Predict the structure.
Amino acid sequence: MILEVVNYGHPALRKKGERLESVTPAARKFIADMFETMYDFKGIGLAAQQVGVAWQLAVIDVRGVTDRPSTLELNGKPAPVDDFMPLVLINPEVKPAGNAVPGPEGCLSFPEIYADITRPESVDVNALNDAGEMVRFRCGGLLARAVQHEVDHLNGILFIDRMTRKDKEELRAELDWLQSETKAELKKKGPSKTGRQSAQ
Ligand code: ZN
């Protein structure tokens, strides 16, 4: 099922996600819906907050991008990135493992808005996968950027929080417009009821 992706201005995007203690059948169905939604929107990552659910859960698949390389290391040895895609991250923790570099980013919750964001070029990741197993790996390039962008979402942090002041000023009018559009939509709908909350 394709879920509704919420835009900047929706309060769910500022919520820190709750940890998932186990991967229930309902959570698995939700993960499948998140992938379906992400592919439909042609994204490479999607966090639960972006579909209105404040959980520590994100999905990623960088296989569709061929002009921006990704790397992955398991126990210090290079491993094929594709073998780990699609990737489910539950309760993820990241630690920087490389120098900070700028790179272009967009976000499904900010349609048509792009900017360069500076982030560590590689990170160590700990997370549960959708089988409830702990996974640990180091990743670099586009995958590292995607992981950090999604983990930010899970903590209520948005890429605009990491933009340079200059970029944010240049985008100010678009951001303000998007935020007010989202708020107006929410008002029209009345008290928020995201059906997904019942997926717990
Ligand atoms: Zn995003």
Observations:
- The first strand starts at residue 45 and ends at 47.
